[in-house]
Design goal:
single chain; 429 residues; alpha/beta; 3 domains; four-stranded parallel sheet; 19 helices; 38% helix; globular; binds iron/sulfur cluster
């Protein structure tokens, strides 16, 4: 008789960690389905989570290390691979110093609770400060702004979609890309419920993205001008007495600075920049401020722009001065199941920039900007000569693939840790 049992588990692919039920037969997983009894995700799982079993069983998946022999990669043992990697790293460091080794980590590690500490230990053991992450390509602005505003890179008050009357969404397309930094399993269901409840959803985007249809309205701006729109909205709130003075009197520090900063960005001044009329800018600011409960959200479209950190600061300033930060229906921060705020706390330290051949550079959450990695391999006076890539594919995910290709070709040693071969691993040793 075959043994068949069901076990509760969860998806490791993205933030909500949706609850799943795995069927095990003779100790092997044979099926995955959403966990209807999960108290938070309540039976939701997307196609990515449910496809994990296909990946788990895929014959093309790498279940063992490969080592380059000429033009081909040959299977080897874990022991031999670990020793070979360690020997190559030690040899490069003995010749060129600790900083000759770089480490690049990709997005999957953000959802792996044991990988973070393990990689932190590895990086500190090899003594290199050349640590890059994919986060610097699409969300470091949020970490940097939250350090400045809240004193911790890990505080990101989320929109209270369930109770809001007005949700302003900038540079996000939840129907296609979910919603990052909010850990909601099924954001479209929540947005739809909010709309049915009578909430107004306003998308700020250069194009009519897939989420607008059937859910909300579009404020179509020119690409990468969100910061100007937000500054003008903040300015309008100050200049038209739309500030929640009870809130600012109690909690604000440096309000005059914010007011003076925004004063340079009146609707009249930014209208031609953002591609909206003065009336449209002032109207959206007035309506946001007048809503009983208004929430804000922004994502990748703004994160990857020229002023992503500034935009994120202004986003929360708009929420704060209108009395919507930290309250029901506005943007809220919950401690959650572990002290995330403590993990990212700056402890009062201002960010420190280091001089570099590329200008002043600062690390965000311990990572250097990924888009400097190729330069640090190709053009640095003390170049990276060995690179460890973990769950990432920088050849495809960092801009300027030609430059990255030249950099990977120049490396004396490249090791890639992943579950599938990738474009980057084509260059691996
Ligand atoms: S939304 Fe999809 S990918 Fe993300 S945790 Fe849930 S099932 Fe996994």
């Amino acid at each position: 008789m075959t043994s068949k049992i069901e076990k509760q588990t969860f998806c490791r692919v993205c933030e909500p960690s949706c609850g799943l039920i795995a069927t095990l037969e003779e100790g092997a997983i044979t099926a995955l389905k959403p966990d209807r009894d999960h108290p938070v995700t309540r039976g939701f799982a997307c196609h990515k989570g449910l496809s994990v079993l296909d990946i788990h069983q895929d014959p093309d998946r790498l279940n063992w290390p490969l080592v380059r022999q000429g033009a081909t990669l040959k299977q080897t043992s874990w022991q031999e691979a670990a020793v070979a990697v360690g020997d190559r790293i030690k040899a490069l460091q003995a010749t060129y110093g600790d900083q000759a080794i770089g480490v690049y980590t990709g997005n999957p590690l953000a959802f792996n609770s044991t990988a973070g500490p393990a990689i932190g230990s590895f990086v500190s053991a090899i003594g290199s400060r050349r640590n890059f992450s994919s986060g610097t390509q699409d969300c470091s602005n949020k970490f940097a702004a939250s350090e400045a505003v809240f004193g911790s890179s890990t505080i990101h008050p989320i929109p209270d979609i369930a109770h809001t009357d007005f949700l302003l969404i900038l540079g996000a397309n939840p129907r296609v890309s979910h919603m990052s930094f909010v850990s909601i399993a099924d954001p479209i269901a929540e947005l739809r419920a909010a709309k049915q409840r009578g909430a107004r959803l306003v998308f700020v985007d250069p194009r009519l993205n897939e989420s607008v249809s059937g859910l909300g309205e579009l404020l179509q701006i020119k690409p990468d001008t969100d910061t100007y729109l937000l500054a003008a909205m903040v300015h309008h709130c100050f200049s038209h007495g739309l500030i929640d003075t009870a809130v600012t009197a109690r909690y604000a520090e440096g309000l005059d600075f914010l007011k003076a900063f925004a004063a340079d960005y009146s609707a009249q001044k930014v209208a031609s920049v953002v591609g909206l009329t003065v009336d449209a800018i002032e109207k959206i600011a007035s309506e946001f401020a007048a809503a009983d409960r208004a929430a804000v959200y922004m994502s990748t479209g703004v994160n990857m722009g020229r002023q992503g950190a500034l935009a994120y600061w202004l986003l929360y300033m708009l929420s704060f001065i209108t009395g919507n930060l930290g309250r029901q229906g506005g943007n809220k921060y919950a401690q959650g199941f572990y002290p995330a705020a403590k993990a990212g706390a700056t402890r009062g330290q201002a960010p420190s920039f280091e001089d570099s051949p590329y200008g002043p550079v600062r690390k965000i959450r311990g990572s250097l900007p990924g888009n400097l990695m190729a330069d640090m391999i190709l053009n640095d006076p003390n170049p990276i000569r060995g690179l460890v890539v973990i769950s990432g594919n920088p050849l495809l995910s960092i801009g300027n693939s030609q430059l990255m290709k030249a950099a990977l070709e120049k490396l004396e040693f490249l090791v890639v840790i992943d579950i599938y071969p990738s474009a980057t691993s084509e260059y691996a040793d």
